[in-house]
From TrEMBL, chains A, B, C:
InterPro entries: SLAC/SLAH, SLAC1/Mae1/Ssu1/TehA, Voltage-dep_anion_channel_sf
UniProt keyword terms in alphabetical order: Cell membrane, Ion transport, Membrane, Transmembrane, Transmembrane helix, Transport
Membership in a protein family: Belongs to the SLAC1 S-type anion channel family.
Region span, Disordered: 1-47
Spans traversing the lipid bilayer: 190-212, 232-251, 272-292, 298-316, 337-354, 360-380, 392-411, 417-435, 447-467, 479-503
Extent of Polar residues compositional bias: 1-12
GO annotation, biological process: intracellular monoatomic ion homeostasis; stomatal closure
Membrane topology, record value: Multi-pass membrane protein
Top-level taxon of the source organism: Eukaryota
Organism in which the protein naturally occurs: Panicum miliaceum
Name this protein carries in UniProt: Guard cell S-type anion channel SLAC1
Matching PANTHER family: GUARD CELL S-TYPE ANION CHANNEL SLAC1, S-TYPE ANION CHANNEL SLAH3
Amino acid sequence: MAADPSSSSTGQHADDFCAAPPEDARQTAMSGPLNVRGERRPPPMQRAFSRQVSLGSGVTVLGMDRGGRNGGGRGQRALPRSGRSLGVLNHSGALGAAGGDGAARRGDFSMFRTKSTLSKQNSLLPTRIRESDLELPTHVEDQSVGRPAEDPLNKSVPAGRYFAALRGPELDEVRDYEDILLPKDEVWPFLLRFPIGCFGVCLGLGSQAILWGSLAASPAMRFLHVTPMINVALWLLAVAVLVATSVTYALKCVFYFEAIRREYFHPVRVNFFFAPWIAAMFITIGLPRAYAPERPHPAVWCAFVLPLFALELKIYGQWLSGGKRRLCKVANPSSHLSVVGNFVGAILAARVGWAEAGKFLWAIGVAHYIVVFVTLYQRLPTNEALPKELHPVYSMFIATPSAASLAWAAIYGSFDAVARTFFFMAIFLYLSLVVRINFFRGFRFSLAWWSYTFPMTTASLATVKYAEAEPCFASRALALSLSLMSTTMVSLLLVSTLLHAFIWRSLFPNDLAIAITKDRQNGAVKPSGKGKRTSKRVHDIKRWAKQAPLSLVSSITKSNSADKEEEEKTE
Amino acid sequence: MAADPSSSSTGQHADDFCAAPPEDARQTAMSGPLNVRGERRPPPMQRAFSRQVSLGSGVTVLGMDRGGRNGGGRGQRALPRSGRSLGVLNHSGALGAAGGDGAARRGDFSMFRTKSTLSKQNSLLPTRIRESDLELPTHVEDQSVGRPAEDPLNKSVPAGRYFAALRGPELDEVRDYEDILLPKDEVWPFLLRFPIGCFGVCLGLGSQAILWGSLAASPAMRFLHVTPMINVALWLLAVAVLVATSVTYALKCVFYFEAIRREYFHPVRVNFFFAPWIAAMFITIGLPRAYAPERPHPAVWCAFVLPLFALELKIYGQWLSGGKRRLCKVANPSSHLSVVGNFVGAILAARVGWAEAGKFLWAIGVAHYIVVFVTLYQRLPTNEALPKELHPVYSMFIATPSAASLAWAAIYGSFDAVARTFFFMAIFLYLSLVVRINFFRGFRFSLAWWSYTFPMTTASLATVKYAEAEPCFASRALALSLSLMSTTMVSLLLVSTLLHAFIWRSLFPNDLAIAITKDRQNGAVKPSGKGKRTSKRVHDIKRWAKQAPLSLVSSITKSNSADKEEEEKTE
Amino acid sequence: MAADPSSSSTGQHADDFCAAPPEDARQTAMSGPLNVRGERRPPPMQRAFSRQVSLGSGVTVLGMDRGGRNGGGRGQRALPRSGRSLGVLNHSGALGAAGGDGAARRGDFSMFRTKSTLSKQNSLLPTRIRESDLELPTHVEDQSVGRPAEDPLNKSVPAGRYFAALRGPELDEVRDYEDILLPKDEVWPFLLRFPIGCFGVCLGLGSQAILWGSLAASPAMRFLHVTPMINVALWLLAVAVLVATSVTYALKCVFYFEAIRREYFHPVRVNFFFAPWIAAMFITIGLPRAYAPERPHPAVWCAFVLPLFALELKIYGQWLSGGKRRLCKVANPSSHLSVVGNFVGAILAARVGWAEAGKFLWAIGVAHYIVVFVTLYQRLPTNEALPKELHPVYSMFIATPSAASLAWAAIYGSFDAVARTFFFMAIFLYLSLVVRINFFRGFRFSLAWWSYTFPMTTASLATVKYAEAEPCFASRALALSLSLMSTTMVSLLLVSTLLHAFIWRSLFPNDLAIAITKDRQNGAVKPSGKGKRTSKRVHDIKRWAKQAPLSLVSSITKSNSADKEEEEKTE
């Protein structure tokens, strides 16, 4: 192989960013596997070995690779350290239990670390290693010039890759033929397994709190004699869950910012970044009246709407003018989440007394709702095919018109023609999904299911409002039955969640979706390729652990600018 | 050929679901052409012969095949029996006159028979034949296992096939290079030639009845002094035509349910399944006031809207979440028919006094109207190119906004901004089509033309309403001229229809659109293929005649479930 | 080459509409370069020479070709004659200064001449030449039969070609590898360099005049104490510019109708054909109240709206039903210009007192606005990728909702929910573009920039109206800041324009966009093709100069019918 480096290795460099270096680079790599700029250069001995390893056992090879390096006695700190030092979230114990031979088989999770943490650590590396790098500057330069964008994390993963590599109800399972960057057979650090979708629980509970407050207070539903205490209890639960989720996710943000970036580029997940703010607005709207009869201060509205608005400017701008994340490509039912926030914000604006701000949000919402609605209904061929398991996401279709209806009624003060039109649209879409109940069966429980409860609850809320406007038997019966359905759903999910969390301890499986490789691997595409596959999962061994919690802001800034660059690369 | 069954026959089995069985199956086939499970196994003698027959004369071979079998004295009842026994619709006479040599040249129409009829008949077959089937179970099993989905009717025809194989104003003519399942040179049974598009006549006449009732009653058009008698006459005519059409189509439903399934999968025809209910609602709305001054009972509304609503749930659901019938693919101007029903239903709801139900339908209508309107205007590349002859369908563009305008005015009680916006949209689209008058010339008359009269009439009706709201010279002149145009159109079509029906007897040509093959045939694609083409139109000889009129419901159920299966096969 | 005319020339005729004639036609061509039907047959001597010329120097060859012919002493009138005789617009002086060696290097601009002018001139040619044509009728017939559509101008350039061959902020720069029909290194006649985009200046100034009138008159902005004199001054300036632009463009229409046709087929430029009428309506709306306090006569509305309406019927019809100019393909932000005219027309209709006509236009506008908005937001893959430099066009997104908001308020008399929804949409889109300020930097100044001022001004106007409806500090501050921004922008552009016009004399560069070839040239696609490339830019030497100003109408008619033919060629 060393005899024809141009044909074998150079050719692979062209299409495989993780290709092993040619054999004659062995000396270099052995003496200094780390270089200053962070290029990956694995010890070629293991590389040469891994070439003979089949696709299926690639993960094992990776583990050995790591183990070999860790066992090499170079004094590198094992990765899970940082997790262990978190104290509160003792994921390292679970990790140790899963990885049979301890440190030797532990995955390299440092690649998802916050970057500035890593670079700061690099500067703390023993000088000897860095010197050995500098001894062979030509090689380093060659490689860094030849493949400047090889870092699997530096560049964002294109949207199409997520659709290609993933499947499942939330694009959260990896297809069989795909390799991932992290070990599949090991339990990852808790924070890495904590997806943004967890805010769905807050959405579900927050909207339930509003619903029961509304059922207790609405004159149309007075015949039910609902006690406001249910509202209070649900509200407290919702607040507790929101606080816990937010704190946990903030910690993830601090320690694994790269993982969050990957969630941000995930075509389904990105929409869940709206969820925290929507959940917070639900909490504010659902505030039990006994405790806070007055209207909230407009500052609350600003606090929750401004981040949401900034995110909207970003996401809608991507659709309209930026890069390759065209709406016709990334649209999927969860895109409704990016629209529904406007309407919830409008409701809150009406609650705090800023009707004009509410009208502003409503206008943004309806404009983009039309776009999303038409795009989703058309199911353009560029919309990467939604797998069958994504069907639950269709319930999102109900949320937006319901919220639009409620918001219009809240802003303009009456449940008039516009509000009714949106309300009836929601009811029709509800019906349309109910008759397709098969779509919603047979899927594994996951936390993401929670986000499907809030459309049902929103529809129930809109029906209660409608029943106020048109108090007759039919409307009240509809309101009652929808409310019961949504509450039943929430109760079932609550029980399931508690069972998974405390009995089966399976609430947070490995979040494979964030660990897909940037490109489909050669070996995966052509499993029959003979011996040409070289090991590809050579991790950036520079990115290892030590906490640098204060580096969050700088890395966000850095990431945003990188993001901006990518966005401006229009075709 | 028997020497290499794997190369010749197995290879063809893969891509040709109608391939003849290998020669060595002759014994089996001869002794028992029918087996229990309904696999097609034709007498191989004729098959061997038909292999030497060119594509063009395939129909003749088919006829001979049938004839040979009928002449074989196995006591099978000839197909047209059922038709003949209908008594009223003597199509068998016409059939006999067309097929020169009587039974020997008659086509095999049994494939479009209602399925349960066929299976019931199979159970009545002489036991000997079924036993002879069982004598050779291996062959039967081989074939049923090897080609489980070969039945040209069991599986629905994909939407793309209709666009590929058909052309003409209503996708009702077969392209030259296409084979069809039924003989082209023979007159088919009347019921097979009676398309769903015939309800277009009812739409045209029903809307005219409403128009003349409105012209007679509207204060804005009082200067015309229209007698209400025109309304009465038109209404009676419309009722008579609707009843006749419905009865005939119900008979088709009973006897040729498979043909109806094929119409249902036709991308243009499927929208005409909304027509019967819309026509019935037109009749109810157009009820002469002298005879029924009160408002109709809401049960009438339920009776007509419920089937329409169920169909909508089905069709819109297909667009949104089901299978491959994506809106971006199947959208065509006749899709407006699937939307306009909501608005007509809303008008009827206002008439019976259920304003909220009307608002519900209006909301569904407007949501899907936006989707259809945008999709049609974009003319996505996935929208299979509409042939030039489909241009008349563009008149459908006028119908929906006109109806939306009328419906809004009826529900909300005033011809306000919303109603005017839709009305003016309709007027602009009308104008836009009028200046493209060339689009609408040079096409052969067909019954489908009738469906293009109802948009004109609906626009006239909306203009009359507008003239009531804005009584000035211009609006009255517009109302008058549009009314005259639509009435002229209807009169011309009425005369044409009568001429075609009773003078030229060409009103119901063979409905080729339902008889296209499921896949494009090898021979058709490569007409120069040498000798590799074997006869493909080997019909399911199990599916022959005897009436089983009560099997309708069961077959509908069966068909629906098959349909559902297909729908859930998302890519 | 003469030995196998069928292989060499016929083959080239098939794919290259400008192929040189075979060598044996030399005699013919020499004796008579012009034939009756207008086929292009250049003197083959230069052709033979130009075959050895590389692609890059093709322009020079062309110039020599022309020069040779002009120098041949056949008494042909040099092209710029017509321009020179215009007197007022002394572009020939500039031309002479630019083209170094005078007539010998002058380009052949006659191909963009109005056609009927040319044919009339042909009939005035010396009889001898036409006779020499007739001496060799076989050759003439052969060529005319063999390549009936080879004329690079007879057929319209498909929309895709413009996207493929052009780049730049307004698709007005030619890609490097593209050949164009006119010499790049020469200054073209002034009229050829005067694009339709110049009406953007009128849009910007006209809307500014309205804005300052509104600032002076609006009760909400009274605190500014704006003098109405600014309005008057701006209005007079706007009128002067509009008159000058219109006269100039009318002259271009008379003399270079072919160039206008090419602008009409340009996917961005075609939308600017709406600009003159919109500018005229702006002028009418912005009429200083001191001078014309009454409402304008409705005839003014008719005069400006009717051409706009006719153009709309044409353009929208193309989207919906005609040819290959599908909306999903040609949609780009400048398509907003084709929609915004409706709203401006509606405002003017309200001003003249024809509210119903305004509602009509508003309905057309909103229907097509939804379509354009959704299409642009989806960014379908068929939407040819907008180059980065086209980003300024995104400001058009602001114009339409602002105008829709103003129009609704004008027609229905109050800034109600509908008007506010559109207004807030505009504000959001404004914000969305402001945060993407990088999109709008780094582009060369061009006259087209003017058209980006009018969206800003329209948004300011809508904000002033909003401040009237909601008089508070925030709304007034917003109105004031937006007004200042738009006025600053207009002032900057005014200064830039004056500098470019009178100091740098670079206001009107060669308008390369109209001179792209109909097909991408062989040589351009395969630069390595050996010797097979023959010179392609053999211009129609029949089309030379003499003015025939009255031929305008006939050529418009002719062009329209050709256009119609193309449109009806649906795929």
